[in-house]
Structures are given as C-alpha cells and as structure tokens.
Design goal:
Length: 194
C-alpha cells in the first residue's frame, strides 16, 4: 500500500465568507435607507430654506425701515445724536446681519420720504416711488420723536419674536437676539417706561 500524505485543510484568516457577505448586504440595505431618507427630506429642506429666505428678507426690510426712521429722527432732532447714534449703529448692524443692502453704520439714506396721512396716523410707512423705505413724518417734539422711534422698535421686535417659531435654528437665534436688542432699545428710548 502506497503511503499517501493528505494535505491539511487550509483555513484562511479572518471572518468566514458568509459573514462578510451578510455584513455587506446589511450595510447596503442601511445605505439604501439613508439615501432614501435624504431624497425624501430634500423637498422639506427646500421648503425650510425658502421659508428662511422669506423671513430673512422681511427682517432685512424691517431693519432698513427702522434705520431710515433713526436717520429721519436724527435729521429732525440733531440734539439727540449722542443718545441715538449707538442705537442706530446697532440697527445698522442688524440690517447687515439680515442681509439688507448698504446698511453700514455710516451709510445714511435720505431723511424722509412722503407719507400719506393714514400711514402717518397708523405708524406704518407709505410706499415710496423711489423704492427707498418710506418713513412717517418725525414728530416735532423730542419726547414725541423718541416715543415714535420706541414704537417702531417695539413693532420690529414683536415681528422678529413672532418669526422665531417658523425659522431654522440658526435664523431663530439671530431673530431672538435682535428682538431682545430691540426691546432694550425701547427701554433706552422711553427711559424704562412702557
């Protein structure tokens, strides 16, 4: 009888082939689920981005109008410059943060634009033919002018606070911060009286 030497079974190092194939199938399924989830969330992400764009645009418009009101008040009452200049600079920074055009602390748009009598009575601006923010006439007394400016700050702060709920987290933080700053401006303009 011839002597036969059988070769020992060679075993590879690492996990068995079936385990690797099972893992690959599981990973492929998980990847497919993630990609499907990403695809499904694209319309929601687009809606959220569109909503944020609208909220940001409105906040920028409100800030530009508020900045124009500060400028009109400063033009009508130059003696208030020391009191209003720091607040105006913050409003300009807010306008820039929301993406309003040339809203730098040194940029000053025209002091006033014509406003209708009903707009002046309601405190809301009338449309301007030039496209610049139209502001109501500034009251002749300094106390009344400060009260009108405080009212405009109060309205802007309320609008920003209301917009927080619909905004993305980053924009919501910005809106809330600017609304809080607006509330502080109201206190400074009214001497703490509400």
């Amino acid at each position: 009888m011839p002597f036969r030497i059988s070769a020992p079974a060679v075993r590879r190092a690492g996990p068995p082939r079936r385990a690797v194939l099972g893992w690959a199938a599981g990973a492929g399924g998980a990847l497919a689920a993630v990609l499907a989830g990403c695809t499904a969330s694209r319309p929601a992400a687009r809606r959220a981005a569109s909503r944020d764009t609208g909220l940001r645009r409105q906040a920028a418009s409100d800030s530009a109008l508020l900045l124009a009101r500060y400028d009109a008040t400063l033009a009508a009452h130059p003696a208030l410059a020391g009191r209003l200049a720091p607040l105006r600079a913050q409003v300009a920074a807010h306008a820039a943060a929301f993406g309003a055009g040339a809203a730098s602390p040194s940029a000053r748009p025209p002091a006033t634009a014509p406003a209708s009598a009903s707009a002046a009575a309601s405190g809301s601006p009338a449309p301007s033919a030039s496209g610049a923010p139209a502001v109501p006439p500034v009251p002749s007394g300094t106390s009344a002018a400060l009260s009108a400016l405080a009212g405009a700050e109060r309205v802007a702060a309320a609008a920003r606070s209301a917009a927080v709920a619909a905004a993305s987290p980053d924009l919501a933080r910005l809106l809330a911060s600017v609304a809080a700053c607006g509330a502080a401006h109201v206190a400074l303009l009214t001497g703490g009286a509400r």
